[in-house]
């Protein structure tokens, strides 16, 4: 709840007081008093841009970037809270707090909430690598999607029910068939290794899973709105202003992205990577290395980037009213490549460096 408050710079004076109170109250619990004092001191230097990164190999290129400078005088290099390290620094004209979440939706959601609760954050920039489900994009390209969905929340339908059968608890509004389903029968393979419609007619005990929107609880605005009043969100939009600014990143020649993995020994990409603003990305706590599922995600949801964290960061930012955008560099084809193994083994470091280069440039564009 504090985050929405903190992100509203126009209302800062009364609410920084509120933060003081809240942080003091929290002191006896998760945040020790000495840490709470450090947080208060740090916030006097705010507001910050929050930079949220999944893993160390995606964060290192950012911290090593010549555009990342040490924190302003009076700020420590970092504060450790609840198992996370919040690193202070500056990128361009912005003071930043950089935090690593760890893998998956739970880690990224919890860490983003912690960031927004503790610190005076005016916006969140997320970066990392992703699988690519978009035939128009190549490995190494950096995608900036306009919408993000969590595609790991399902209603798994019982065998024997069909597309017209109501889902369990659908009538109470908990679940919906609006977003469509994945029917396991469609993926049965015959002796020739291809989908087998004849075998499919017999059905599949796994039947189908139906995609569900996230239940969200938007932070109450000053004096209004009721806590625990449920809403639903599937496509979480990025901040419209940040998205507009990211248009500049597509300008040819503005950014020189890396093309060769390692020392350029034959693992070079067919063309120099580019930044591409795209419509959609999706996330779930699932590593996708499967061509059929990749194609399903593309045809059902029109996604480019497939990853394991961004939608959680987006959904927390959305509920807390914090402006948010994500850049994800494509490291592999999510199982759709011709090679025998996932391309991320070779291209993940290159993608991580490209993601950092684009994130730094994007941050410098934010006024
Ligand atoms: C899944 O496909 C099978 C075979 O076509 C069909 O019998 C079943 O009704 C389908 N289930 C759903 C939920 O669409
Ligand atoms: C190229 O270099 C990378 C990184 O040093 C290495 O992992 C890869 O195996 C090399 N590829 C070839 C074809 O030699």
TrEMBL record:
Keyword Signal: yes
Keywords, comma-separated and alphabetical: Signal
GO BP term, pick one: nucleoside metabolic process
Residues of the signal peptide: 1-28
Pfam families, alphabetized: PNP_UDP_1 (PF01048)
Residues of the Nucleoside phosphorylase domain: 49-363
GO molecular function: catalytic activity
Alphabetized SUPFAM superfamilies for the sequence: Purine and uridine phosphorylases (SSF53167)
UniProt keyword annotation of rRNA-binding present: no
PANTHER family in the cross-refs: PHOSPHORYLASE SUPERFAMILY PROTEIN (PTHR21234:SF42), PURINE NUCLEOSIDE PHOSPHORYLASE (PTHR21234)
Protein name, as recorded: Nucleoside phosphorylase domain-containing protein
Species of origin: Panicum virgatum
């Amino acid at each position: 709840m504090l985050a929405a408050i903190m992100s509203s710079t126009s209302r800062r004076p009364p609410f920084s007081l509120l933060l003081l109170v809240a942080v003091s109250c929290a002191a006896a619990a998760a945040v020790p008093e000495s840490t709470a004092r450090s947080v208060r001191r740090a916030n006097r230097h705010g507001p910050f841009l929050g930079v949220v990164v999944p893993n160390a190999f995606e964060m290192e290129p950012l911290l090593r970037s010549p555009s990342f400078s040490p924190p302003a005088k009076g700020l420590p290099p970092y504060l450790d809270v609840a198992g996370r390290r919040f690193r202070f620094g500056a990128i361009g004209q912005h003071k930043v707090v950089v935090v690593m979440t760890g893998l998956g939706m739970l880690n990224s959601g919890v860490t983003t909430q912690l960031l927004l609760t503790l610190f005076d954050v005016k916006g969140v920039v997320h970066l990392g690598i992703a699988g690519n489900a978009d035939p128009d994009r190549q490995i190494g390209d950096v995608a900036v999607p306009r919408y993000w969905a969590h595609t790991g929340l399902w209603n798994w339908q019982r065998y024997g029910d069909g597309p017209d059968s109501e889902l369990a608890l659908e009538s109470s509004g908990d679940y919906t068939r609006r977003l469509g389903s994945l029917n396991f029968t469609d993926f049965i393979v015959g002796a020739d290794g291809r989908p087998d419609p004849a075998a499919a007619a017999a059905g599949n005990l796994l039947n189908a899973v139906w995609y569900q929107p996230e239940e969200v609880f938007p932070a109450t605005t000053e004096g209004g709105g009721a806590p625990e009043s449920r809403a639903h969100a599937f496509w979480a939009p990025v901040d419209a202003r940040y998205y507009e600014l990211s248009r500049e990143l597509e300008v040819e020649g503005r950014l020189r992205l890396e093309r060769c993995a390692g020392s350029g020994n034959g693992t070079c990409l067919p063309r120099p990577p580019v930044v591409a603003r795209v419509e959609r990305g999706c996330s779930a706590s699932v590593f996708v290395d499967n061509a059929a599922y990749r194609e399903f995600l593309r045809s059902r949801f029109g996604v480019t980037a497939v990853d394991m964290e961004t939608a959680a960061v987006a959904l927390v930012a959305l509920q807390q009213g914090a402006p948010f955008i994500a850049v994800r560099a494509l490291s592999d084809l999510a199982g759709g490549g011709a090679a025998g193994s996932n391309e991320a083994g070779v291209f993940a470091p290159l993608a991580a460096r490209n993601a950092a280069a684009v994130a730094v440039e994007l941050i410098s564009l934010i006024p």
